[in-house]
Amino acid sequence: MARPRIKDVARHAGVSEKTVSNVLNDYVHVSDRTRRVVQEAIDHLGYRINLAGRHLRSGRTGIIALVVPELDVPYFAELARHVVREAEKRSLTVLIHQSGGDRERERAALAGFGSDFVDGVILSPLALAPEDLRAHTGPPPTVLLGELLNEGADHVAIDNERAAREATEHLLALGRRHILTVGGRDDGRVGTAQARTRGFRLALAGAGVPYDPASLLPVEAFHMSDGADAVCRVLAEGVRPDALLCLNDQLALGALRALHGYGARVPEDVAVIGFDDVEGGRFSVPSLSTVAPDKEAVARVAVDLLLRRVDEATRPDDAGPPSTVCPQDRVVAHRLVLRESTEGVVGGGGVW
Fold first, then answer.
1. pTM (whole model) above 0.90
2. What whole-number distance in Å separates Cα of residue 337 and Cα of residue 102?
3. Which terminus of the chain, N or C, has fewer Cβ atoms within 10 Å?
């Protein structure tokens, strides 16, 4: 059986093809009765919009790419879910690519993977250098996530420095003074870990607590095993913190396991707070306090910015000069979610 077309829907509904098109495009000036009749015809015939044809006529493929370092890091998996939802609202398909934090893979993503099959790229980079971004002057349009330098591209992130400062201030308000930062980095580079470390230091300074470089616990990666290893290492050396600021929830969950192995009570002896508000932290024992970025807003803003650039890139030659809007740097909301790993005990736990 031939696939039903718009003219078949129009004939069945007793309306013009233009009216069917208006209904499909959700045109406001269509009566409820007409909309209902057309929708009944669509349902009866099993009509489906030919998205491929629509995209080709507009000079687009209808595919965008989301490039993240690791999909088995829950934050990126949850972010990908939100990006897919936002794209579906706009009849777009999302190609999800895992870069592994490899510079060459991230550069390939900037270049659209060497082909024309994506309209634009949403990229969360770890290894790109500023010169890589400066060299990216052609298609496809790109929106960056995270803290990498914004070199001529739209950018979406939370205020990581402020968020870490607020989290540390909460620990300080509980009376904790020996706070270690799991995953902290103070190497002068640009990145999420560095921004969160600056927030940690600002909170200490604001409370008159001296900063000790030894309070930063470096990690190879931001997995649970890395958090557990880092905390086990300092506990084995006899260090007894009264709080841990973990720069993502995976590190925090690993830290909880390490503390349990050493007999430390959370939060009585050691308060623990993470970042990202991933699902696992809500079900850990104790449940994990965390900084919750508005992941839905990150996805929505990133998709909106990308589509604006795609519109500019595919505008007809006779549509006038292209927009000269400068790259946008958008900061989305975050909030502190307080759960069992910091709540219930004020004043610190002393030496355990």
1. no
2. 32
3. N
Q: Which amino acid is at 274?
A: G
Task: Give me the count of residues in the chain.
Answer: 352
* Lookup: tokens for 99: 């870069």
Note whether 291 and 164 are within 8 A (CB). Answer: yes
CA 304, CA 297: separation in Å to the nearest integer? 10
Residue 66: count of CB within 10 angstroms of its CB: 27
**Candidate from 54-63, 92-101, 130-139, 213-222 with smallest mean pLDDT:** 54-63
Other beta carbons within 10 angstroms of residue 113's beta carbon come to 17
Q: What are phi and psi of 178, to 5 degrees?
A: -105, 80
Q: Please report which helix (H) or strand (E) contains residue 81, including its range.
A: helix 74-89
Does an H or E element contain 343, and which? none
Helices (H), 94-159: 103-110, 130-135
- Smallest CA-to-CA distance from 221 within 230, 212, 213 is with 230
Element housing 244 (H / E): strand 243-246
String of DSSP letters for 266-303: TTTT-EEEEES--HHHHHSSSPPEEEEE-HHHHHHHHH
Q: At which residue do the structure tokens 């084995």 appear?
A: 236
Q: What is the pLDDT of residues 260-311, one digit of tens each?
A: 999 999 999 999 999 999 999 999 999 999 999 999 999 999 999 999 988 8
- How many CB atoms within 10 Å of residue 261? 12
Q: Whose CA is closest to 63, among 88, 80, 46? A: 88
The rounded distance, in Å, linking the Cα atoms of 228 and 2 is 60
How much of the chain is helix, strand and coil, in % rounded to 5? 45, 15, 40
265 to 199, 277, 351: CA distances (angstroms)? 26, 22, 11
